[in-house]
Model the fold of this input.
Amino acid sequence: MEDLIETDVLIIGSGIAGGSAALVAADAGLRVTMITRSRDPLSSNTNWAQGGIIYKGKDDSPALLEEDIIAAGAGYCNPAAVAQLATEGPGLVKKILIDRLKVPFDTHDGDVSLAREGGHHLPRIIHAADRTGAAIEIALIEALRQHPNIALLAGHTAIDLLTPAHHALDRLRIYEPQSCAGAYVLDRAAGRVMRVLAKRTVLATGGLGQIFLRSTNPPGARGDGLAMAYRAGARVINAEFVQFHPTVFVQPGAQPFLISEAVRGDGAQLCHADGTRFMAKYSPEWKDLAPRDVVSRSIYFEMLENGLSHVYLDLRSTIPAERIHAHFPTIVAFCVEHGDRSDPRPRPGRAGRPLLLRRSVDRPGGAHND
Ligand SMILES: Cc1cc2nc3c(=O)[nH]c(=O)nc-3n(C[C@H](O)[C@H](O)[C@H](O)COP(=O)(O)OP(=O)(O)OC[C@H]3O[C@@H](n4cnc5c(N)ncnc54)[C@H](O)[C@@H]3O)c2cc1C
Done:
């Protein structure tokens, strides 16, 4: 491999953002070089996503989706970005994920099956059991590998963006308008840094959950892209809004494991050890399907008020056992493996007793990041 690669488009990151950008650019006839830091290109937040991805519900419309997103965003969402997402998002999910990649989403009566999640007024989430992200990522990487215009380089870590401004010997260049000519990239197997020169560079390096003590995010979610963009002079805003999940299975020594919001979407309810529900107190309209910040703060208040280290999530009272196994096989398997040996199937003499999936929140509320 040369120490210099020249390409039309450099894409940094092989998750759903980088992968779909690569497909669109390559389909348009551009030469795409995609790099990803892990040796396994599947490694990403995308691969770990559980519950599903927003599509469109029955009697849904861009206006309804927009309304739900704006409400859940508590006044922080950029209206123009939300409008674009609500208008174009569902169509792109169909075009890229359903028609092009043929991701094996669950179906019902011959159509994609729709689930509901927090903050949504109607079911509009499509899913592949509780492994939706893996189903998407596997199909995506396969398509990228087969595309003649795409070179996919795994085990290559972008270190810094190549911008005339911040790498110039002339220090005054930093005051000129920014442009990006590619990136410095570490080829980990060869142990050397090379330059990738590109007409366009796309940063799609995912989140930064790993900067927090506890996170459901994979090890690679450490904010490389944000740091590179910041060093190159980009404005970083709203950095407090990191991707997080309110409900996580925590056990000393085990990796915190997400209990998907889709579980609450299916009817699971937060409660205390004695079965007392509490979400109606905080969100009479949405209860357990309130937006994530509301759910997290509610859990936090409950723990503070009652001097508790965790609360519980009850599936068994509200979701039939067969459905739990069919919809959430990964979550059930994890819980069984890590100590909660309660099988959600009704047992003689125990019918009606709720299955309490152990969950724990360490630092919930705004600062909680998992
Ligand atoms: C456990 C879990 C469950 C989730 N469930 C859902 C869900 O049900 N529904 C939903 O909509 N969202 C869900 N999410 C969020 C969703 O997964 C992410 O928002 C989405 O996958 C982000 O995609 P991305 O392409 O931006 O980033 P990622 O998928 O994280 O991809 C980032 C890529 O960049 C690479 N990279 C990072 N740094 C560098 C570098 N310096 N050089 C080269 N490559 C680099 C990584 O290796 C990776 O390939 C979940 C997230 C997690 C962690």
About this structure: The mean pLDDT is 89. The pocket of flavin-adenine dinucleotide is lined by residues 12-18, 35-38, 43-46, 48-53, 132-133, 157-158, 204-206, 216-217, 220-221, 224, 243, 258, 260 (CB under 6 Å). The domain at 248-358 is CATH 3.90.700.10 (Flavocytochrome C3; Chain A, domain 1). The first helix runs from residue 16 to 27.
